[in-house]
Amino acid sequence: MAADEPVEALAAVCQDLDVPTLQAHGIDKDQQPRRPTVDEIQDLCAQIRARHPASEEHDGHDSQIRAETR
Fold first, then answer.
1. Distance (Å, rounded) from C-alpha 2 to C-alpha 47?
2. Tens digits of per-residue pLDDT, 8-54?
3. Which of 32, 12, 33 lies closest to 22 in space, CA to CA?
4. CA 65 to CA 70: how far, in whole Å?
5. Which residue, of 28, 31, 50, 58, has the greatest Cβ tally within 10 A?
6. Rounded Cα–Cα distance for residues 64 and 54 (Å)
7. Which residues contact 28 (CB under 8 A, 6 or more apart)?
8. Eight-class DSSP state of 52
């Protein structure tokens, strides 16, 4: 798979540079928190938007940013 090639290349660079691994620091990889899935992140964003709907007074600062970049 093409996506594996960059990962393998990065792993080779890390090995060449002696970048320490989690295991080298005594950290069990299986004990690390897992990365949230895209669906979980999207669900969380939807929950936040539902609790804090945008309004004209506060639209996530988009209007301020647009005004400053003109």
1. 35
2. 998 899 889 988 887 888 888 777 778 888 899 889 988 888 887 76
3. 32
4. 9
5. 58
6. 14
7. 22
8. S
Distance between CA 43 and CA 38 in Å, rounded?
9
Q: DSSP characters for 18-33?
A: TPPPTGGGT--GGGSP
Cβ contact 13:5 at 8 Å: no
pLDDT at residue 63 in the model: 58
pTM for the model stands at 0.36
DSSP characters over the chain? -TTHHHHHHHHHHHHHTTPPPTGGGT--GGGSPPPPPHHHHHHHHHHHHHHS---SS-STTHHHHHHHT-
User: What is the rounded end-to-end Cα distance, in angstroms, of the chain?
Assistant: 44
Tokens of 50: 């539902």
Element at 55 (helix H, strand E):
none
**Residue 7, pLDDT score:** 87
